Amino acid sequence: MTRLDPESEAGLADYLATAGPPGGTLRERREQWDRAAREDNQRRGNDLLVSSHDMLAPGTADVRVPLRVYRPRRGVALSPAILLIHGGGMVMGSLETEDRAAREICSVLDVVVVSVGYRLAPEHPYPAALNDCADAYAFLRTRAADLKIDPDRLAVVGGSAGGGLALALALRLRDLNRPLPRLVLAAYPMLDDRRDTQSMCRLEPMGIWDQEDNEEAWTAYLGGVIADQYAAPARAESLAELPPVFLDVGDHDLFRDEAMLFASRLTQAGVPTEFHLYPGAFHASEEVAPNAALSQRIMAARYAALERAFRAGR
After folding, report:
1. 6-19+26-312 maps to which CATH number?
2. How many CB atoms lie within 10 A of CB 249?
3. Tens of pLDDT along 204-226?
4. Contacts of 5 (CB under 8 A, 6+ apart)
């Protein structure tokens, strides 16, 4: 196996030295991540030409789903839009932890970004998170005119758990015969509760989403039920008729093999699929070491895929 990308590895060392490995209870880890995100946002400042506001979307069983809408200050009258689903194993993460990424996507692509603050496990096990994401997607389509977005140029984007939820949402929309997004972009997605691939079992812990974290997350999310394809998309019997999918993963990521297998199955099912395997990258390395040349290549490929999808929708 290739070694870690040196720039990304240096970024990881700095990250772990500054933040320290996550510890304590799940609540304490959530608070630590939110606090770190807020401090990072304050340190960098709002240097991007992006405005934002929070709102609530009607959800399943009278739930109100928190959304944060980001709009380019130089935005067009009818913009493409991205539904952004945060990571964190379905047990952590929030609108705050995704704030910087949402602002950057909005600024770079000049599109509306809507981040969804879905409910977290174990307090709200499956299918709460997926229901919230589905309700947010439906809200974007039904309120497209009010939001000044083009419902025919809508993409769903997520990383890690967010990538798994994005693909689960696509499966549900397909099976319900609902309008599909223009593209699903799933970065190093969390897809398989069985946790039996070679990369899952043999890669050394790095302090960034290791085997113990993954086991805890799946246990909390499933809440004792047996996973179906909407909980764990790797279990889907058929991937046919899904919308175009973009997948990427690093070769030092626990999710490497499940992402590779899923990309292969998508292609075999006739789904337009773009897949990138990055030597030297680890889980979320582009977030941990954003200035590394490898990270910049990762982000450039994602942005290019989204731009192509939005152009094709015109």
Report:
1. 3.40.50.1820
2. 28
3. 898 899 999 999 999 999 999 99
4. 279, 280, 281, 285, 292, 294
